[in-house]
Every structure is written in C-alpha cells, then in structure tokens.
Amino acid sequence: MVFSSVLFLFYFLPFVLTIYFIAPKKYRNFILLIASLLFYGWGEPKYIWIMLFSTVLDYTCGRLVHYYKSNENINKAKLWLGVSIFVNLGLLGFFKYSDFLIFNLNNILGSSIPLLNLTLPIGISFYTFQTMSYTIDVYRGDTKVQNNIISFGTYVTLFPQLIAGPIVRYQTVAEEMDNRVESYDLFSEGIKRFILGLGKKVLLANNIGILWDNISHLNMSNIPVLTAWLGILAFSFQIYFDFSGYSDMAIGLGKIFGFNFLENFNYPYMSKSITEFWRRWHISLGTWFKEYLYIPLGGNRKGRFNHIRNILIVWILTGIWHGASWNFALWGLFFCGILIVEKLFILDLLKKLPQWLTRIYTLFLVLISWVIFAFDSITDGLNYIKILFGFGSNDIYNHTSLYLLYTNILLFLILIIGSTDIPKRLWNYVNNRFNKISWIVENIFLLAVIVLSIAYLVDQSYNPFLYFRF
Q1: What sign does the dihedral 64-66-69-71 (CA atoms) show?
Q2: Of 34, 129, 283, 352, which is least packed with CB atoms within 10 Å of its CB?
Q3: Which tens digit of pLDDT belongs to each residue from 340-392?
Q4: Rounded to whole angstroms, how far apart are CA atoms 264 and 251?
C-alpha cells in the first residue's frame, strides 16, 4: 500500500483516523501499532515477522544495555549493544546483499553457487537503521530506555514513515511516544503538508517520470544529445519530487498523529557545492551516517589521512545502502571524490565565486551522478554520459527531441521553480501583504491539488515510488 493510492486515501487512512481519535489516549499507541502492521502486511505479509523480530530484539537489547550500564557493567552493556548491531546488520545484509555477493563470487571464482532469489523486504533499510540507532543512543545515554514494548513497537512500525523514511531517530520522538499532544492546529498543518506532498508526487514526479521512462528504454545508439539531457533532467526532477513528496506526506501524517518528524529535504537543487547539497538532500540519512559512523570514526579530527579514510568509508557505505549493485558503489565513490576535493582544496574558493556559477557547477555534477544512479549497468551509465557530451555517432537533436522539449517545456518550468524556495517566498509575501484573503487562496490551492491528484490516480496506472527498492 502506498500513500498515493485510492485504497490508502479513501479507505485505510479515514478508518485509522476514526478509530484513533475516538479511542482513549492510553490505547492510541496500540491502535497505531496494529494499523502499521496492517499497512505493512498489505504489501509484504510474508516478511512482517522480520519487523516484529527486529522490534523484540532491539527492545530487549535496549533494556539490557540500560540495565548493565546502570549497574556499571560496561562490558555486558557493550555485549548487548553488539548483539543489536550484529543481528540488525546481519538481517539487512542477508536479504539485501546475499545474491549480490554470490553473483560476484561466481564471477570471480568461476563457481556456480545458486542464487537465493530473495525478495527485498520493503523498507528494511530504513527501519533497520532506526531500531539500531535506538540501542546505540541508549548505550550513549542520548535517550531514555523505552520500557513499554507497545510504545517501542509503535516507533519501529509507525506507518507514516515506515517504508521510505525519513529515518526517525528515537531520541527525536521519545517524548512524543507516550506524551504527545494532538491538536486541531497540528491536524490542519499535517493535512496541508500531506496534500502538498501528494501533489509533488502525483502531479509532478509521476508526470515527468513518464518522460524519463520513455527515454531510458530507447536504444542508446539512437538517442540524440538533446534527448539524453532531457531524460536525465527528467529523472533528476522525478527522484526529487518523488522522494521529497513522500517525505512531506510522512511529515504531514506524523503531525496529524502528534509527531514532529525532522525535515528531510531543504531545496537541495539550490546548493552552491556538493558539500551543501548533501546537507540538504535526504537529511535523515546523512545525519545517521554522520552521527553513527563518521564522527565515531574520528570525523576530521585525526589528521588528513584519517579524514579522507572516513569520508571514503562513509560514502562507499552510503552508495551500497541504496542498493546491491556496483553502480551504487560507483555513485558513492563519485561523491566521495568530489567531497574530498571540496573539503580539502576548493570549498573556500567556491564561496568566493558568483552564486550562479557555483550553482551551475553543483547541478552539473549532480546530474552526472544521477546517470550513474539510474542505470544498474555501469556500462549503460557510462554510455549515457558519453551521449550527453556528444561522443559517438549520435545526432545533436532530431524531430523527436524537439517534440519532447516542446510538449514538456511548461512542466520543466514548473519543476524548476518548484525545486527552489521561490514558491515559499512568494507565498510569504502574499500572506503578509494580503493576510485577510490569504487563507482563501491557500484553501482553494490545496483543494485544487487534492482534486487533481485524485483525478490523476483514478485515471492513471503509472505510480511508482523510486525509494521502495532501497
């Protein structure tokens, strides 16, 4: 089940909201837990046991870590912390990377070990990181231990952000798990945020995604340079509005139920360096790797060699986190190399250059990175990059290129403006200047977005979520 579906919007969500808000507060975590398990089980019933196992495991490990730390038995506290980390990473590694390792071993050794052909459990990369961070935070003393397994299970399975993030660290919602306050203002704010996210996903990401889907399936030997650039621009906008739209919907749903999730995107395509881009893109993942890997490794505090090593480790793992394929590892190494160069050599220079120039520099590198990301085959990705720069026998453009540009130019303009803070600044101006009628304008706009989104969902079948496969 996905948020952008008739089933979720007209059946699941209204039913859950009705039961949740008529129930006494002491039962609301239990209702959310059951609803979340039903939500997950609808699309992945055979793997629901993995999530339940992770819940019980990390609940137990958290209790034991807290108990032994309170009794100053650090060795046993470390032991149970190690159990949590080992089992969580073991489950993630088994389901996500087993076939990848077997395939590469067969190629290297010439063996014929049969593949396991495991289906990747939806959201395992997200909820594994969440549950593991809880045990680590309990060990560090950064959060209180949760003694109620229903409350902890609610945190792990919480359906608004269960299957595609943002990654919610327990310490950010610890107080709200048992003492949150639902209100009309939060409900209203949550509905608005959800509608905006739905519009980004359904009206923008889905529509531009069709263009990328068509171009990516063309024979590369026949793709003109202009068509190739239109394609990767389309993918760049699709992945941004797809994932940020999902995050907006998750944050909005969280507010409806009294949770305040942290932001996951902050206009990344406005960045003036790759360093800044990764402070603005998928913020929850970047924060997780920083807090639980980069800083514990020493960050930039132990000399240049160790600094480079730490960046390398983090970015190889960041790439592989996205998928069991060499193109993701290469994608991570691509950003690793740029970040090392920026941090050690050119970041100060970039700050002195005109903003328009540094934004072009950043967007150019990001577009190239999305080519590596989009193609599972490294060879296909490199061939696509060659086409972008006119290497080979491909034409610069043809009639189809011009047709695609002409028919999508308005959508591209909307996407360009929508990926910046211009709409936000414009709305703030209207709200401050015309305060008495701004709420009317806002509600008309939101009504139009929800009506158009539902009409699209009823009429169209193209409705992927790109980050489900991670």
Answers
A1: negative
A2: 352
A3: 999 999 999 999 999 999 999 999 999 999 999 999 999 999 999 999 998 87
A4: 9
DSSP code per residue over 381-422:
HHHHHHHHTT-SS--S--HHHHHHHHHHHHHHHHHHHHTSSH
The pair of three-digit structure tokens given for residue 402, joined into one six-digit string: 């011009």
What is d(CA 159, CA 7) in angstroms, rounded to the nearest whole number? 15
220 contacts 383 by C-beta, under 8 angstroms: yes
Contact indicator for 248, 424 with CB cutoff of 8 Å:
no
Helix (H) or strand (E) holding 365: helix 355-374
Compute the distance between CA of residue 349 and CA of residue 316 in angstroms, rounded to an integer.
Answer: 26
Report CA Rg, the chain.
23
Nearest to 244 by CA among 270, 259, 265, 230: 265
pLDDT score, position 459: 78
Which helix (H) or strand (E) segment holds residue 439: the answer is: helix 435-459
Residue range 238-256, pLDDT digits in tens:
999 999 999 999 999 999 9
How far is it, in rounded angstroms, from Cα 38 to Cα 166? 20
H/E element holding 185? helix 184-199
The residues that are catalytic are 322
Residue type, 40: Y
Q: What does the angle CA 134 – CA 119 – CA 371 come to, to the nearest 5 degrees? A: 85
Dihedral angle of Cα 318, 323, 327, 328, to the nearest 10 degrees: -10
Separation in Å, CA 276 to CA 267, 283, 309, 363? 10, 11, 20, 12
Give helix then strand counts, H and E, for the chain. 22, 0
CA distance 280 to 42: 33
Tell me the C-alpha distance between 404 and 469, whole Å.
Answer: 28
Q: How many CB atoms lie within 10 A of CB 299?
A: 15
